[in-house]
Amino acid sequence: MRRNTDTPSGGGSILVTGANGQLGKELQQLAAAYPQYDFIFLSREDLPIQHAGEVQDAFRRYRPQYCINCAAYTAVDKAETEKELAFSINAAAAGVLAAVCKENNCRFIHISTDYVFDGVSTVPYREDGPVNPQNVYGASKLEGEKQALYHNPDSIIIRTSWVYSEFGKNFVKTMLRLMSEKGEISVVNDQYGSPTYAGDLADTILQIIMQLPAHSPASGIYHFSNEGIINWYEFAVAIKELSHKHCKINPVPASAYPTPAKRPAWSVLDQNKIQQTFGIKINDWKQSLAECIRKINKIGK
Q1: Is residue 86 part of a domain?
Q2: Catalytic: which of 125, 137, 197, 233?
Q3: CATH at 219
Q4: 23-36: per-residue pLDDT in tens?
Q5: For a disulfide at 91, which of 96, 141, 144, 281, Cβ 3.0-4.6 Å?
Q6: Model confidence over 89-136: pLDDT tens digits?
Q7: With a threshold of 0.85, does the pTM exceed it?
Q8: Is residue 197 flagged as an active site residue?
Q9: Burial (0-12, 13-18, 19+ Cβ within 10 Å), 186
Q10: End-to-end Cα spacing for the chain
Q11: By C-alpha distance, which of 250, 269, 9 is closest to 162?
């Protein structure tokens, strides 16, 4: 846990769950740029959100004005055989957090996923579009959205896609490792989406909070990713170019890599609502990828 205690009055405190994940780490990196807030970063070990009593104790102790729920069960394939655990963390716990936030006059911001959709569209998914998850992970996250809004209609839910950062395990870091270890790799070229740099998502969440007095409107579901539509193969090629690797990358269909959990062929999210509501400026995916790789290289030196 890390806490910023040098906070001017007037900003309020922000409790971040799942603080050691990709998004939680990026929020920690940004905390110093938002000195008007007192940040309370709680890891999975500090606050297992599926334990309601511990959630209530944490809110009594810290009394936050805002809660960003970055905690989630994200092992997409393992979720197929660990359904109960996935639903406990992604669904039931989200409802508990939302309810406790409501009881404590705390604005709840919950992170969800493009996997709530079935991936058969050919146009970007809108927030009010029909949902139809194709795997247990997506179903658990969709139920988490429902639980959050049921227990706390003032909840803000942000769906995102293809998240990566300089922290944790993600596609970008995996590609960088494989390109260093192998002379040739194969990457799926028939699944399309929009990458999301977790640093951009973190900054967007904090920009939203700055516009949220405790009881203002703007609740509901929003979509956020970086701008642009690509497939995984094109993403890998860009990673190779920006990192100056020499590995050969072969495009292959998803059928060449069967997985326990079905992945959507189309994961593009329409972002007009979040831009119009909060005036969010969204970076191009390649611009943000270059920034992330620069940071990864800096960490490695």
Answers
A1: yes
A2: 137
A3: 3.40.50.720
A4: 999 999 999 999 99
A5: 144
A6: 999 999 999 999 999 999 999 999 999 999 999 999 999 999 999 999
A7: yes
A8: no
A9: middle
A10: 26
A11: 269
